[in-house]
């Protein structure tokens, strides 16, 4: 009894914030490895779906391993009648002296590619999902060093493994955490090992960016305050980017009355982050803007308590901006990026903004705040205005902005509102590569009318009725942008994963970080960014 009380007291002590931050090492990729560890090696091999019951359609790498094992792998697979179907696996033991387990995973039909209706590259998606399942099964078996088949698309294979192995369990007791796993690409039979390693590294970096976004989103709001978010971003990016941490006085001097009206309900001070990555000299950077509400209670228009814990992820836009910048800088893309992240909490209190209050944004427009839960657009209004001062070639903002986009698209795709056909085409192309989809939504004048009909001010922060909620929110943001290449991504529907994406575990998704990195990669090939 006494011992269990001591244990409980220790546990409570452990959850003390400063205690956690002291012992907590912020990791973005795989975990740290102890050198005294015993390594249990395993191998993942890919096969294509094949109706035949007397032959196996191996990938190039898998065929070589089978030859080396004197055809044992194919023989063992053929001992059962039913051929492997896409997404299914078989685990073999004692077929190769080097590996305690050889896991064969089916990557779908040979030659599968872009599917127009699904707007996805099915071949790449199947590889991501198949290797993800494989490495998770091997981790369950206690394997901790896994060599993975490139499956004909090294980058997708690396993405699948690195995304699947992510877990946010830093705040749990050591024994309940997922064990560390070392993964590498099976390059030994490749004609061009160097380019394969390079591709693998690119996939791993793309996943690392998304994993940073996931970790930031998942972190509880008592640990990830605006100040702490800025600290972590500095720690992660400062060697590759310039990171400026602006305070409340600075925001006041910039006349960011709309942003500050959200922050005023909380005792946590707001922060405005400005980050610059200069992979190339240019006068017209590419601007990224991210909603950074580290917790959204709704303010005085308070949300229902059920499910409110998910609002720790309301800085998902900010997290995706940080994750994208991590990858862009690690890949050393030749592009100039400037990022703008308004960070604050949306809390109800004696000093909070009240429904009906009127605030003034940086561009002088007045806003009647009829619903304090529509706070994302208020903080983005000032961030978008500010970003325009840097002559950006395009502005891309990301925000967990509306429940309405979740009603419209669910977790199927991020909603994209843009004034540029060209930008839309490029973003869509990027999403086909990443497998993290986008879907275009309208910016009609119809929606603008809903937020300009306002009793006291130039704009109302809600559209009157619930209809078209994601579209009226986008129309509101449009009032603060002059740039001809503007993209607004409403990512509230893709904020968390509950089994929709096979290679992402349950929890905050970090979507659409990889799509944005691919988009920036595409833009870096244009001359003016
Ligand atoms: N942060 C929410 C949107 C949200 C909902 C994000 C679900 C992730 C999951 C946003 O600030 C909000 O509360 N929006 C309101 C707007 C309404 C009051 C016009 C909403 O969507 O209900
Ligand atoms: Zn809200
Ligand atoms: Zn919000």
Task: Explain this structure.
The chain is elongated, with a radius of gyration of 24 Å. Mean pLDDT is 93; it is low at 1-25 and 27-32. It has 17 helices and 21 strands. Strands 8, 9, 10, 11, 12, 15, 16, 17 and 19 form a nine-stranded mixed beta sheet that branches. It has a five-stranded mixed beta sheet with strand order 2-3-1-6-7, sandwiched between helices. The chain has a three-stranded mixed beta sheet with strand order 13-14-18. Helix content is 37%, strand content 19%. By secondary structure, it is of the alpha/beta class. It has helices spanning 2-14, 17-23, 60-68, 72-78, 122-140, 154-164, 193-218, 226-237, 248-253, 257-263, 316-330, 376-388, 403-409, 421-434, 445-452, 469-478, 513-524, and strands at 41-47, 89-96, 99-106, 114-115, 120-121, 145-148, 182-185, 242-246, 271-278, 286-290, 292-296, 336-346, 357-360, 366-369, 394-399, 414-418, 438-441, 459-460, 486-490, 496-497, 507-508. It has two domains: 41-191, Leucine Aminopeptidase, subunit E, domain 1, CATH 3.40.220.10; 215-527, Aminopeptidase (3-Layer(aba) Sandwich). Helix 5 packs across helix 6, helix 7 (193-218) packs antiparallel against helix 11 (316-330) and helix 14 (421-434) crosses helix 17. It binds ligand BES and zinc ion (2 copies). One zinc ion is lined by residues 296, 298, 346, 373, 375. One zinc ion is lined by residues 293, 296, 314, 375-376.
Rg, nearest Å: 24 Å
The helix content is 25-40%
Query: What is the CATH class of the largest domain?
Result: Alpha Beta
Strand count, sense and barrel status of the largest sheet are: 9 strands, mixed
Query: Which word captures the global form?
Result: elongated
């Amino acid at each position: 009894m006494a011992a269990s009380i001591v244990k409980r007291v220790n546990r409570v002590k452990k959850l003390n914030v400063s205690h956690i931050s002291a012992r907590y090492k912020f990791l973005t990729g795989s975990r740290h490895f102890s050198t005294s560890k015993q390594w249990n090696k395993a191998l993942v091999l890919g096969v294509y779906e094949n109706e035949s019951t007397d032959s196996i359609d191996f990938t190039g790498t898998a065929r070589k391993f089978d030859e080396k094992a004197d055809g044992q792998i194919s023989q063992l697979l053929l001992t059962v009648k039913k051929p492997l179907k896409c997404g299914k696996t078989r685990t073999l033991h004692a077929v190769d002296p080097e590996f305690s387990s050889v896991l064969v995973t089916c990557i779908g039909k040979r030659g599968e590619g872009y599917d127009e209706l699904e707007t996805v590259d099915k071949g790449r998606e199947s590889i991501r999902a198949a290797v993800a399942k494989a490495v998770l099964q091997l981790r369950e078996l206690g394997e901790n060093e896994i060599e993975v088949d490139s499956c004909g698309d090294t980058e997708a294979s690396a993405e699948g493994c690195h995304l699947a192995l992510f877990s946010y369990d830093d705040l749990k007791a050591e024994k309940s955490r997922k064990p560390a796993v070392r993964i590498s690409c099976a390059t030994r039979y490749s004609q061009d090992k160097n380019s394969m390693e390079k591709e693998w590294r690119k996939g791993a970096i793309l996943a690392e960016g998304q994993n940073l976004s996931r970790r930031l989103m998942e972190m509880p709001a008592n640990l990830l305050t605006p100040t702490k978010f800025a600290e972590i971003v500095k720690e992660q990016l400062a060697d590759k980017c310039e990171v400026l941490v602006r305070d409340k006085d600075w925001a006041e001097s910039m006349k960011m009355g709309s942003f500050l009206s959200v922050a005023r309900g909380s005792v946590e001070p707001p922060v405005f982050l400005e980050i610059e990555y200069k992979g190339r000299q240019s006068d017209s950077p590419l601007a990224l803007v991210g909603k950074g509400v580290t917790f959204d209670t709704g303010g005085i228009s308070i949300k229902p308590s059920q499910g409110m814990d998910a609002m720790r992820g309301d800085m998902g836009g900010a997290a995706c901006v940080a994750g994208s910048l991590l990858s862009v800088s690690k890949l050393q893309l030749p592009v100039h990026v400037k990022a703008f992240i308004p960070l604050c909490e949306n809390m109800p209190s004696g000093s909070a903004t009240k429904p009906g209050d009127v605030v003034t944004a940086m561009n002088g427009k007045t806003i009647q705040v009829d619903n304090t839960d529509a706070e994302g657009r208020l903080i983005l209004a000032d961030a978008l205005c500010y970003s325009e001062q840097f002559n950006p070639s395009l502005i891309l903002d990301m925000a967990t902005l509306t429940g309405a986009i979740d009603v419209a698209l669910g977790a199927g795709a991020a909603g994209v509102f843009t004034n540029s056909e060209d930008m839309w085409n490029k973003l869509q192309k990027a999403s086909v590569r990443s497998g993290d989809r986008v879907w275009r939504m309208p910016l009609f004048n119809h929606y603008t009318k809903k937020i300009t009909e306002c009793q006291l001010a130039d704009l109302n922060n809600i559209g009157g009725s619930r209809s078209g909620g994601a579209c009226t929110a986008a129309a509101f943001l449009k009032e603060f942008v002059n740039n001809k290449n503007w993209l607004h991504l409403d990512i509230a529907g893709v904020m968390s994963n509950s089994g929709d994406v096979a290679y992402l575990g349950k929890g905050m998704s970090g979507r659409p970080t990889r799509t944005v990195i691919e988009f920036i990669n595409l833009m870096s090939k244009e001359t003016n960014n």
